[in-house]
Specification:
Layout (H helix, E strand, L loop, with lengths): L1 E5 L3 H12 L5 E6 L4 H10 L2 H4 L4 E6 L10 E4 L15 H18 L4 E4 L4 H12 L6 E3 L2 H16 L6 E2 L2 E3 L6 E3 L5 E2 L2 E2 L6 H12 L1 H9 L5 H15 L4 E10 L5 E12 L2 E5 L6 H18 L3
Parallel strand pairs: 1-2, 1-4, 2-3, 4-5, 5-6
Antiparallel strand pairs: 7-10, 8-9, 10-11, 12-13, 13-14
Helix pairs in contact: 1-9, 4-5, 5-10, 6-7, 6-9
Bound molecules: 1,4-dihydronicotinamide adenine dinucleotide (NAI).
1,4-dihydronicotinamide adenine dinucleotide binds next to α1 and α4.
Length: 306
């Protein structure tokens, strides 16, 4: 399979690197509008093949979409990232134009691709792609919840002083500082609810830290993060190309599920070769459902500026 990553910036390049190291494709195409950037990063990455032991070919392209023809999966990371103090929502105007244009160009050459949206504000960019691309809804997946869940698991493991991989936990809802919902009730340490180890105040702090997890990194680094975002995209791509049927929280079009319609929002879905294949019902409590509805309202109001 050929996989295209649009945007060779911090997130796009890291994402391509992870996809190559996992050998998820025969060929990866990295595309950017900035002259030479994608070619340079692709060549640098290809030169790690003999060092890291993979055979995936990677090529770069400056805005030449013919090179992306026949891609099975396309990851869109093009757009501006936030700076310290900015919210993801402030990126909407610039990134909407970029994401719309990129999607049109991609589909001219890869009409059967599954599209993964990473550019922020991701929920709104996913909605935009659904509205403007004409693609079946199962082939449009917004990536944010996998990253937010990874951050949630990391903070939980730090609070519990246990290995991160002992933790199972999920973040649903929007991919925004105030719209994401870390589901503390369902978080477990090797099958045991984390509430058996942590008091309510600690659990609430972990949830709050998770929600501003991206902003914390942006403040420290000066721009948004890329290692975990790139790895999170690769995790999603792997479940598609290997048809693994993992359940991941992803931003998808809701049609009555979780009490919402006509909106793309983060819910647990089965991911396989056809994109997202099924929405899993976590059977939220009334309080969780009310929070989910609030998250949907906030995302809906953001979508209204499209
Ligand atoms: P970056 O600035 O390092 O890279 C963005 C790249 O997009 C640049 O190289 C730029 O030249 C390119 N670009 C701009 N317009 C383009 C166009 N029309 N066609 C092709 N390429 C174009 O930014 P970074 O850090 O890689 O972030 C990318 C996006 O991902 C941002 O919107 C950021 O907020 C978002 N993000 C989303 C996450 C998520 O979980 N969904 C996590 C982290 C970042």
């Amino acid at each position: 399979m050929k996989i295209t990553v649009v945007g060779a910036g911090a997130v796009g390049a890291t994402c391509a690197d992870n996809i190559m190291r996992r050998e998820l494709a025969e060929e990866v195409v990295l595309l950017d509008i900035k002259e030479g950037l994608a070619e340079g990063k692709a060549l640098d990455m290809f030169q790690t093949a003999t060092l890291c032991g993979f055979d995936t070919k990677i090529t770069g392209s400056t805005n030449d979409y013919t090179k992306t023809a026949g891609s099975g999966v396309v990851v869109i990371t093009s757009g501006i990232p936030r700076k310290p103090g900015m919210t993801r929502e402030e990126l909407i105007g610039t990134n909407a134009n970029i994401v719309k244009g990129v999607t049109e160009s991609i589909l001219q050459h890869s009409p059967d691709a599954i599209i993964i949206i990473v550019s922020n504000p991701m929920d709104t960019m996913t909605q935009l792609t659904l509205q403007t691309s004409g693609l079946p809804k199962n082939r449009i997946i917004g990536m944010g919840g996998i990253l937010d869940s990874a951050r949630f698991k990391t903070y939980l493991s730090m609070a519990l002083d246990c290995p991160p991989n002992d933790i199972h936990a999920t973040v649903i809802g929007g991919h925004g500082d105030t719209t994401m919902i870390p589901l503390t009730r369902l978080a477990t340490r090797n099958g045991v609810p984390v509430s058996q180890f942590l008091d309510e105040a600690t659990l609430q702090k972990v949830a709050a830290d998770t929600m501003v997890g991206g902003a914390t990194l942006t403040k420290l680094i000066g721009t948004s993060a890329w290692y975990a975002p790139g790895a999170a995209v690769a995790e999603l791509v792997e479940s598609i190309v290997r048809d693994q049927k993992h359940i991941f929280p992803c931003c998808v079009a809701l049609n009555g599920e979780y009490g919402q319609s006509d909106i793309c929002l983060g819910v647990p879905v089965v991911i396989g070769k056809d994109g997202w294949e099924q929405i899993i019902d976590y059977k939220l409590t009334d309080d969780e459902q009310a929070t989910f509805n609030k998250s949907a309202e906030a995302v809906r109001s953001m979508n209204s500026v499209l």
